[in-house]
Design goal:
Helix content of chain A: under 10%
Strand order of the largest sheet of chain B: 6-5-4-3-2-1-13-12-11-10-9-8-7
Helix content of chain B: 10-25%
Radius of gyration of chain B: 20 Å
Largest interface: A-B, 44 and 45 residues
Strand content of chain B: over 45%
Order of helices and strands of chain A: HEEEEHEEEEEEEEEEEHEEEEE
Radius of gyration of chain A: 22 Å
Largest sheet of chain A: 18 strands, antiparallel, barrel
Order of helices and strands of chain B: HHEEEEEEHEEEEEEEH
Largest sheet of chain B: 13 strands, antiparallel
Shape of chain A: globular
Structural class of chain A: mainly beta
Number of strands of chain A: 20
Oligomer: heterodimer
Distance between the termini of chain A: 24 Å
Strand content of chain A: over 45%
Number of strands of chain B: 13
Number of helices of chain A: 3
Structural class of chain B: alpha+beta
């Protein structure tokens, strides 16, 4: 709380000065969100208030500074017991007395999400600092993105910033090379990426190579010294590519990543998607995702799989999945839709009706419901509960 | 002398009338196409969506166009919710990319996305015109001349070509005889050529850099009882635009 107050004092004192430079833009949004879920016979609700303040300044013709601060408060049920979502054959294996460790807390937080300087030179752009790294053409899943994991129910939500140095070198009108370095403790622990992007006819494509340390936890080993589960890290080398274009009037895209692992078994990820807008303005999207790191039999899902999925350390635990979205502008201000996630590997699915309404030029409501259909222990098993989310966002 | 002048005028008028009567639908639409596809242009426009309940949403955007509409870049300035969203259209909108500043993501869109409403308005991206669609997607037929919005107009019926994927079965267009500017366009549903879907009315036509330009456009949606007004705040023609402006690098600027 103290840090928050200091930050506010800093902003109040410093921003008017920066504003006087006549080049600083201050904008952002406030969102208030309610999440409700009925799990077994319990009804839970979590309220979130988020203030995001963006700063942007054109320091000179070729230098831009941008940053944003996030302030988030949580209310209601702020301690989620993961074991409530899991089947009894998994929870029964947890040693007595350890149950209380499997809780995900939602604690109030404030942080500098992005802060970077973008320098534009004649032959390249250089971005230094904490920045968003968006990779791949997939809508929900991105096999070539080892930096982020999207929320399946909200795949277009902004992704967090990563500290990195990035250089984009345009090669003519349709090609470019991107080199990225995200520093770790030393060169070996740092993430490195090189990507070539090009265009053939009406198709965009990219080839990418990344080396990154993948950090996750062993949720069966609790380290009492650090009061957390033991951390496991492993070098991951990815070779992949993506494409996006049009075929027979349909928008199509594909993305592939082969992951060479230092210790565990290599795996690959594949996304294939298509979309179309009908003359009556209805939009449809379908995306298939295969991840050989996932399992094809739901009875093989273990505690680590579930915990890594819930803590966003791992993209998927099911091998084959499909996402669908159908959306229609019901009025000029309202869009309605229905999305679904089908886990082919374990024959379960989630249905999520979605709704978006423009309250004013700079205010909108987004809401969805989610219903799970599947046997206990599956990705969309009934133990995942049914619920919904409503979010009011005001831009300033 | 007076008789000579009067005779001369009569001959001139007859020649003009005869010239306009000689024009075929193809000739007229060709002239419309040449007029609206300027070599390069810059525009700043305000778009106001008026819903059936009277609610309004206002957007302001800038756009740059090169090679007679072959390359286009549109960047939203207001409201803050969409500020910075940028659309790059190349090859007469066969290739479209959209940049979302909040997620810093560029998405390649297929040409079907042109059918989508532009920020929920009554204009689709397709309606905004991209190059030669009146020529490439429709077959013109000249109808009986009519007066429309106070102008003497050629009236044309444009019927969708069988191989075209455009969202309308036909258009009825009123073209001002004086300058070949399309003042009103009626859009008919793709699968029901007798059902009118929308009407575009262009007004406040001014000569800017020797080119007739409608400073105001209103698209009436007959089905939804809504309308979208478009007002040009600034426009420049035949300016110098580098090719580098129409690249992904500029999209993310």
């Amino acid at each position: 709380m103290k840090r928050f107050i200091y930050l506010m004092i800093f902003l109040i004192c410093f921003l008017p000065f920066l504003n006087a430079q006549d080049k600083l833009e201050i904008f952002g949004y406030f969102e208030s969100q309610a999440l409700a879920s009925k799990i077994k016979n319990n009804f839970y609700q979590l309220y979130t208030n988020k203030l995001r303040v963006d700063l942007k300044s054109q320091i000179s013709k070729n230098i831009t500074f941008a940053a944003n601060f996030d302030y988030i408060t949580y209310h209601g049920k702020t301690q989620w017991d993961i074991l409530e979502f899991l089947s009894s054959n998994i929870t029964s294996k947890i040693p007595q007395g350890m149950e209380s460790f499997y809780v995900i807390p939602f604690s109030n937080r404030h942080f500098l999400d992005n802060a970077y300087i973008k320098m534009r030179f004649k032959y390249f752009d250089l971005i230094v600092g904490k920045q968003q790294i968006s990779l791949g053409t997939g809508y929900v899943w991105n096999p070539t993105d080892v930096f982020n994991i999207k929320d399946m129910l909200d795949p277009t939500y902004e992704i967090p910033g990563h500290n990195a140095m990035r250089m984009d070198i345009p090669l003519g009108a349709a090609s470019s090379i991107t080199a990225l370095y995200s520093p770790g403790d030393n060169w070996k622990d740092s993430a490195k990426m090189i990507q070539f992007e090009g265009r053939i006819s009406h198709f965009d494509y990219s080839l990418i190579a990344i080396e990154k340390i993948w950090r996750f936890h062993d949720y069966t080993q609790f380290d009492y010294e650090i009061l957390n589960f033991s951390e496991v890290s492993e070098k991951r080398q990815l070779l992949g590519g993506s494409m996006a274009g049009e075929f027979l009037g349909l928008g199509i895209w594909a993305e592939y990543g082969y992951n060479k692992m230092e210790k565990s078994k290599d795996f690959c990820e594949l996304v294939v998607g298509l979309d179309y807008t009908f003359d009556f303005k209805t939009y449809i999207l379908l995306e298939y995702y295969r991840n050989t790191f996932g399992k094809s039999n739901y009875e093989d899902y273990d505690l680590n799989d579930w915990m890594r999925l819930f803590t966003a350390e791992q993209k998927a635990i099911s091998r084959d999945q499909i996402y669908t979205l159908i959306q229609h502008p019901a009025t000029d201000l309202m869009t309605i839709g229905l999305s679904s996630f089908i886990s082919i590997s374990d024959s379960s699915f989630t249905l999520a009706p979605v709704f978006n309404y423009s309250l004013s030029d700079n205010a909108e409501i987004i809401a969805y419901l989610n219903f799970s259909f599947g046997r206990e222990g599956k990705i969309s098993g009934k133990n995942m509960g049914n619920g919904g989310m409503i979010r009011l966002r005001i831009y300033f | 002398m007076k008789n000579i002048i009067i005779s001369g005028l009569v001959i001139l008028i007859l020649a003009l009338v005869s010239f306009s009567q000689d024009l075929t639908g193809e000739d007229i639409i060709q002239k419309v196409n040449e007029l609206i596809n300027v070599q390069t242009s810059y525009g700043k426009a305000k778009m106001i969506i008026i819903t059936s309940s009277g609610s309004k949403r206002t957007f302001i955007y800038e756009s740059w166009s090169k090679n007679k509409g072959e390359k286009n870049l549109v960047r939203y300035l207001e409201p803050i919710r969409v500020k910075g969203q940028t659309i790059l259209m190349l090859n007469h909108s066969d290739d479209i990319w959209m940049y979302f500043p909040r997620t810093q993501r560029v998405r390649k869109l297929a040409s079907h996305s042109k059918k989508q409403k532009m920020q929920g308005s009554d204009f689709s991206y397709e309606d905004m015109g991209s190059g030669d669609e009146f020529i490439n997607d429709f077959s013109p037929k000249r109808l009986k001349d009519e007066k429309m919005e106070g102008h003497n107009c050629f009236k044309l019926e444009l019927t969708r070509k069988p191989d075209s994927n455009i969202s309308y079965s036909r258009l009825i267009m009123w073209v001002i005889k004086e300058n070949f500017y399309p003042v009103v366009i009626d859009y008919y549903e793709k699968h029901n050529p007798s059902s009118q879907e929308k009407r575009l009315v262009q007004s406040d036509i001014r000569i800017i850099d020797d080119i007739p330009t409608a400073m105001k456009m209103v698209m009436f949606n007959e089905n939804d009882n809504t309308q979208t007004e478009m007002e040009l705040l600034e426009v420049k023609y035949n300016i110098t635009l580098e090719d580098s402006m129409f690249t992904e690098r500029e999209l993310k600027k």
